[in-house]
Design goal:
The complex is a heterodimer of chains A (448) and B (251). In chain A, 77% of the residues lie in helices and 0% in strands. By secondary structure, chain A is mostly helical. In chain B, strands 7-6-1-8 form a 4-stranded mixed β-sheet. Chain B has a 4-stranded antiparallel β-sheet with strand order 4-3-2-5, with no helix packed on it. In chain B, a hairpin with a 2-residue loop joins strand 6 and strand 7. Chain B is globular and about 50 Å long. In chain B, 39% of the residues are buried. The chains are: A mainly alpha (448), B alpha+beta (251).
Chain lengths: 448, 251
C-alpha cells in the first residue's frame, strides 16, 4: 500500500511538471496496470535470474490466462526455452516434453511471425536432439529425418536455415546414430557456397568419429572443397587422426596445392601428426628451393618447434639454402632444440664474420636469450665484433634484455669507456630502459 | 589608467586588423599563393630543401624529401600558402631562389603584417598541422621577437599538444642562441654527455624533469645545457615553460 501511494504521487508530480505528454502517460499507465504485462516482466526477471522453473510457470500463466495479450505467443516460446534449459541440464525428459508441447501450441495459434517461426524451429530441433540423446526413439527418428533433409539443395543463403541445419547435425551426432557418418558425408558432398559454414560444422563432427572411412572423407574435403576455410579445417582435423595415411595425403597436398595458406595449414598439420613420414615430408619441403619461401620457412620453424629434425639437418639446411627467411627460421628452430650442441652452434654463428649480418644479429639475439650463455660469452662476441657497429649494437641490446644486475655493470662499463663513441651512446640509450637504481646516479655522474 | 587601457585596445585592434587584412588578400584566390616578406639577417636557403640561420647560426631546417641541397642564398622568406575554397590548408616555407614554375601568385607583406598573420594562425587555427607549420615562417620574420607570444601558446591548454611541442622546439633554439649554445662540441665525451641527457629525458617524469630543469639552468657543459633545454621542452611538462621564460628573461 505504501509503495502504491509513492508511485501515484510520483506520477502526479511528473504530470504537474509537464514532463510527460498525456498520450504517453496513458499508455504507460495502461502498461502499469495490464496484468499480462506485469506477468511478462516478472517472468523476464526470473529468466534473467536463471530461476527457470519460476519463469516457465509465469510464462505458462500468461499464455493460459491472457491468450489474446500481445506477448502470449512469445510467452509460449520462452516457456519452451526455459523448460529446455531445465530439461537438458537436469536430464529431465518431462520438462523437454512440456517444452515441445509449448512450441506446438505456439505453432498452432501464433505461428505467423516469420522471424519468430525460425527461432521456434531452431529451438524445436535442439529440444528434439536433447530428447533423442536421452533415449527418446521418436525424437531420434525426427532428427534423423531432419538430417536427411540436409541433402536437399537450399534456395539462397539463409542464415537461419543453416543454423537450424547445424543444430540438426549436432543433434544427430549426440544420438551416436549409425546414420550419422553417412549423413555428414552427404553434407560434405554438397559444395554449395551457401553451405560452407554447415560443412565446417560437419568436418568438426565427422572428425569426432575414428575410422579409415572418416580419414578418406576428410582427405577428399582437404583436397577438393572449393572453400578455403573448409579445406583448412579438414586439414587441421586430419592431423588429429595422427595416421600415416593422413601424413601421406597432407604431403601430396603440399606438393599439389597452389594455395599457400592451404599449404601452410598442411605444414602445421604434419607437425602435429609427428610421425617419421610427417617429418620426412616437412624436411623435404624445407629443402625444396622451388617451394614458396614462406611455406619453406614455416616448415623449418615447425620442424624445430616439434623436434622433427636434428641439429645436423638444420646446419645443412642453413648452408644450402639461399633464402633469408629460411635461414632466420633455422636459427629459431635450433633454439627450439634446447641442447648444448645447438647453443654452441648459435654461439659460433654469432661470432662468424663470414655470414650475413641479419643471420648473425638473429643468432646473437637468440644466444642472448639462453640462460646457459653467460655474460662473459656475450662480451666475447662484443669484443670479437669490433669494427662492426651493427654486431656490437646488437650485443648491447641483448645485454639490456638480460635480467641479472651484472648486465647493467657491463652496459655501464661500455658507456663509460668504450673506445667507440657510438657504442658508448648505444649503451647509454639501453641503460635508460633499465630499472636498476644505479642507473640514475650513473647518468648524473656522466652529465655533471 | 583608462588612457592606457584604451591605447592597449587600439593596439590589439590594429594588430588584429593587419592579420585580417593579409588573411583576406591570401584567401581571395584559390590555389598556391606566395607570401613574401623580409627575413632575418643571416637567414639563407636554396629555395627548396633547406634554410639556415633561422635563429642565430646554429639552427637549420631541412626537408630531405625535396631533393639535392643547393647553395645557401640570402633573401626574403617565401611562404607557399595552399588555399582551398578560401581556406588555408597548408604552409611551406622557403628562403633563397624560388623556381618560378613552382611559385604561385605573389603577395608582398611587411615584416609586421607577416608576423601578425602567422601569430594569428598559431593562436587560432583549428588545424593543428597548419598552426605548427606557421611557427617556422614566424621565426624567419625580420626584426621580430615573438618569444612572449610563443610562451603564451606553450602555456595554453587550449592549443594542441603538437603545436605546443613545436613552439617549445623553436623557443629552445631561441634560448640556445641567446645563451651562445649554438655550436656543437663534437668530442666523444661531449657526445656521450648529450646522449646521457636524452636518456635521462626518457626516464619517468618524476625523475627526469627536475634533473633536466637543473641541467638547463646551470650545467657547465654547453652541450649538456643545450640538450637539457631541448629535451625538457619535449617532455610536455608544464614546468618546462617556466624554465624557458626564465632563460629568455620573460614572464
Amino acid at each position: 500500500m505504501h509503495m502504491k501511494i509513492v508511485t501515484m504521487l510520483a506520477g502526479a508530480a511528473l504530470l504537474a511538471a509537464g514532463h510527460v505528454r498525456p498520450a504517453v502517460s496513458q499508455q504507460a499507465a495502461a502498461r502499469q496496470t495490464d496484468p499480462a504485462d506485469s506477468l511478462w516482466r516478472s517472468a523476464a526477471l526470473a529468466r534473467a535470474d536463471r530461476d527457470y522453473r519460476k519463469a516457465a510457470s509465469l510464462y505458462k500463466q500468461l499464455a493460459a490466462q491472457y491468450p489474446k495479450a500481445d506477448r502470449a505467443g512469445e510467452a509460449l516460446y520462452w516457456r519452451a526455452w526455459t523448460l529446455y534449459q531445465l530439461g537438458s541440464q537436469n536430464r529431465n525428459r518431462a520438462d523437454l516434453d512440456d517444452a515441445v508441447q509449448s512450441l506446438d501450441i505456439y505453432s498452432a495459434n501464433y505461428g505467423k511471425d516469420a522471424q519468430m517461426a525460425a527461432d521456434v524451429t531452431d529451438l524445436h530441433t535442439r529440444i528434439r536432439s536433447a530428447q533423442a540423446s536421452f533415449g527418446d526413439a521418436a525424437a531420434a527418428a525426427d532428427i534423423a529425418q531432419q538430417a536427411r533433409k540436409l541433402q536437399q539443395t537450399s534456395q539462397g543463403c539463409s542464415k537461419d536455415e543453416n543454423e537450424i541445419r547445424a543444430a540438426a547435425l549436432q543433434g544427430l551426432t549426440q544420438m551416436n546414430s549409425s546414420e550419422a557418418v553417412s549423413i555428414l558425408k552427404q553434407v560434405l558432398a554438397n559444395r554449395d557456397p551457401c553451405r560452407a559454414e554447415l560443412r565446417k560444422t560437419a568436418v568438426y563432427l565427422l572428425a569426432q568419429h575414428n575410422s579409415d572411412d572418416v580419414v578418406t572423407t576428410l582427405l577428399d574435403v582437404a583436397r577438393n572443397d572449393p572453400n578455403h576455410d573448409v579445406q583448412s579445417q579438414a586439414i587441421y582435423y586430419l592431423s588429429t587422426t595422427r595416421s600415416d595415411r593422413a601424413a601421406a595425403a597432407l604431403d601430396s597436398i603440399l606438393v599439389a596445392s597452389r594455395d599457400n595458406d592451404v599449404r601452410n595449414s598442411a605444414v602445421y598439420a604434419l607437425s602435429v601428426i609427428h610421425t617419421d613420414r610427417a617429418a620426412q615430408a616437412l624436411q623435404r619441403v624445407a629443402q625444396d628451393e622451388r617451394m614458396p619461401e614462406d611455406v619453406r620457412a614455416s616448415a623449418t620453424y615447425w620442424l624445430g618447434n616439434s623436434g622433427l629434425a636434428d641439429l645436423a639437418f638444420f646446419r645443412t639446411l642453413y648452408t644450402n639454402t639461399r633464402s633469408h627467411a629460411v635461414r632466420n627460421n633455422v636459427i629459431q628452430a635450433v633454439v627450439g632444440l634446447h641442447s648444448p650442441a645447438a647453443t654452441q652452434w648459435l654461439l659460433d654463428m654469432a661470432k662468424d664474420k663470414s655470414i650475413d649480418a641479419d643471420s648473425r644479429k638473429n643468432a646473437i639475439y637468440w644466444v642472448g636469450q639462453q640462460k646457459s650463455v653467460d655474460l662473459d660469452q656475450l662480451m666475447t662476441i662484443y669484443e670479437q665484433g669490433r669494427g662492426d657497429n651493427d654486431v656490437q649494437s646488437q650485443v648491447i641490446y641483448v645485454l639490456s634484455t638480460r635480467s641479472e644486475p651484472a648486465a647493467v655493470d657491463k652496459l655501464m662499463a661500455i658507456a663509460k669507456s668504450d673506445s667507440n663513441v657510438e657504442m658508448r651512446k648505444s649503451a647509454l640509450y639501453w641503460l635508460g630502459t633499465k630499472n636498476d637504481p644505479r642507473v640514475k646516479q650513473f647518468l648524473l655522474d656522466i652529465v655533471r | 589608467m583608462r588612457t592606457l587601457t584604451t591605447f592597449a585596445l587600439i593596439l590589439a585592434a590594429a594588430h588584429g586588423a593587419t592579420a585580417q587584412s593579409l588573411s583576406r588578400r591570401i584567401a581571395g584566390s584559390d590555389g598556391i599563393v606566395d607570401v613574401v616578406y623580409p627575413s632575418r639577417p643571416g637567414a639563407c636557403g636554396d629555395g627548396h630543401s633547406y634554410i639556415q640561420g633561422i635563429i642565430g647560426s646554429g639552427s637549420t631546417y631541412q626537408d630531405d624529401s625535396r631533393g639535392v641541397r643547393g647553395a645557401c642564398v640570402r633573401g626574403p622568406a617565401h611562404v607557399a600558402v595552399t588555399v582551398m575554397n578560401g581556406e588555408i590548408t597548408r604552409l611551406r616555407t622557403f628562403v633563397g631562389p624560388r623556381d618560378p614554375a613552382l611559385a604561385g601568385r605573389t603577395i608582398r607583406a611587411t615584416a609586421a603584417e607577416a608576423a601578425d598573420w602567422l601569430e594569428h594562425i598559431i593562436n587560432e587555427s583549428e588545424r593543428s598541422s597548419l598552426a605548427s607549420q606557421a611557427v617556422l615562417p614566424l621565426m624567419l620574420v625580420d626584426s621580430v621577437r615573438p618569444w612572449q607570444s610563443l610562451l603564451n601558446v606553450a602555456r595554453s591548454d587550449d592549443r594542441p599538444a603538437e603545436v605546443r611541442k613545436n613552439v617549445m622546439m623553436w623557443l629552445a633554439s631561441a634560448i640556445d642562441a641567446g645563451l651562445g649554445l649554438g655550436r656543437d662540441d663534437e668530442s666523444d665525451d661531449a657526445q656521450v654527455r648529450a646522449q646521457a641527457v636524452y636518456t635521462i629525458s626518457q626516464r619517468n617524469r618524476s625523475e627526469s624533469v627536475p634533473t633536466l630543469m637543473e641541467l638547463a639552468r646551470s650545467s657547465p657543459h654547453p652541450e649538456v645545457r643545450k640538450a637539457a633545454i631541448y629535451w625538457l621542452g619535449q617532455t610536455g611538462d608544464p614546468r618546462a615553460v617556466g624554465v624557458y621564460a626564465e632563460l629568455l628573461g620573460l614572464r
